[in-house]
Design brief:
mainly alpha, single chain, 17 helices, 81% helix
Length: 372
């Protein structure tokens, strides 16, 4: 399922904002679209839980297929129906919620604490192994046939991805977010609030960077080629990091990743301001993808293991600081664009990574204490 769904969204993921730019929408309008998308994802996360309590997690993916169909159909019609723009951002956020919340919950339930690093690496690399050429294929489809064929192809793979999940259709949730439950989970996991905000701020700066290098002069084919390069690098890094996480001190791996990510975001800023040539953009994108893979894999294991203590209710409430971090990023981007200092957003990402060089990682790895 991860492989097929990964191909489907891998075909369109990074290219939807680029599609909006190619339609002539201004850069700030695309950033606002992303802001609405993530706000919708937050609302959708709680809606998914409410629905999965009744119909199960896998059937939420059925709903997602309908949402994706509306999304791709709306994007195809967007040139003649520009009023659809921000409605599609809402639908996009909802479909993301209907995929990621069930996926993350099932990941927590079907993996073990001691081997979480290698388990996440295996799941990621199964998808990456098949999908390594997906960005290149997507770019070729766009250049040769246009975005309509791209959307249709992606929808086909997403539809087919439902079938391998049928044996899990009885998996349900029983989450009830009353005040007492929410207060208890927040109190036990408050140490994750700031890390989740800063982690997601840094991760989503990757999207901003992709739009920047497209505007700077790289083509759709260049973006596809970069996707292949970073996919190959990421697959190797994910495999190595997954093994390191299970055998090394997780704190050490997080620290190494954070230091390297801080350095690379700093370099990205200087490249963006002083040397935004195709060669330097290719190089810095590939290397930064490598070091971010180390950090994201290590921190992700800590977060997923923490979710076990609340049957993944933590993962749903986690969306609040997660989305807040992204909102900070996109609002900051809009402000920086308005004052002519757009590139400073990459320094903001460097600062967010720097936080993890000094944060108390041991506290993040502790099991929550029972609070009365």
């Amino acid at each position: 399922m991860n492989t097929l769904a990964g191909i489907g969204m891998g075909l369109v993921g990074v290219f939807i904002p680029i599609y909006l730019l190619e339609l002539g929408y201004a850069f700030p309008a695309v950033i606002l679209w992303l802001l609405i998308h993530h706000s919708s994802l937050l609302v959708g996360a709680f809606l998914v839980v409410f629905i999965s309590n009744s119909i199960g997690l896998v059937r939420c993916w059925y709903i997602r297929v309908f949402l994706v169909s509306f999304l791709f159909g709306g994007l195809f019609l967007l040139p003649s129906q520009p009023s659809f723009l921000y409605t599609l951002a809402v639908i996009s956020g909802m479909e993301a919620a209907f995929f990621w919340i069930p996926y993350n919950i099932l990941t927590v339930r079907k993996t073990e604490d001691a081997t979480m690093g290698s388990s996440l690496a295996l799941m990621s690399n199964i998808g990456s192994g098949v999908g390594i050429i997906v960005p290149g294929i997507a770019a070729i489809l766009i250049v040769t046939f246009g975005y309509g064929v791209l959307f249709a192809t992606a929808l086909f793979f997403i539809l087919v991805s439902i079938f391998p999940t049928l044996p899990l259709r009885d998996e349900k949730t029983n989450f009830h977010f009353d005040r007492a439950v929410v207060k208890k989970i927040v109190k036990e996991n408050k140490r994750f609030i700031v890390p989740e905000i800063l982690d997601n701020l840094g991760q989503d700066t990757q999207v901003i960077w992709t739009l920047f290098i497209f505007i700077t002069g790289l083509t759709v084919l260049d973006i596809g080629a970069l996707g292949i390069i970073t996919g190959i690098i990421g697959m190797g890094v994910t495999y190595i990091t997954g093994s390191m996480i299970d055998t090394w001190n997780k704190k050490t791996v997080v620290r190494i990743g954070a230091v390297l990510a801080t350095i690379m975001w700093g370099i990205s800023y200087f490249v963006a301001v002083y040397a935004p040539t195709p060669a330097t953009l290719y190089l810095v994108t590939a290397i930064r993808g490598l070091v971010l893979g180390v950090f994201v894999s290590a921190y992700g294991v800590i977060m997923f293991n923490q979710a076990r203590h609340h049957d993944a209710q933590f993962l749903v409430l986690r969306e609040i600081p997660t989305i807040f971090g992204r909102i900070i990023l996109f609002v900051a981007t809009l402000v920086l664009i308005s004052i002519g200092r757009f590139e400073f957003v990459f320094l903001l990402a460097a600062l967010s990574s720097l936080y993890f060089c000094f944060n108390n990682i041991d506290a993040l790895m502790e099991a929550p204490k029972n609070n009365k």
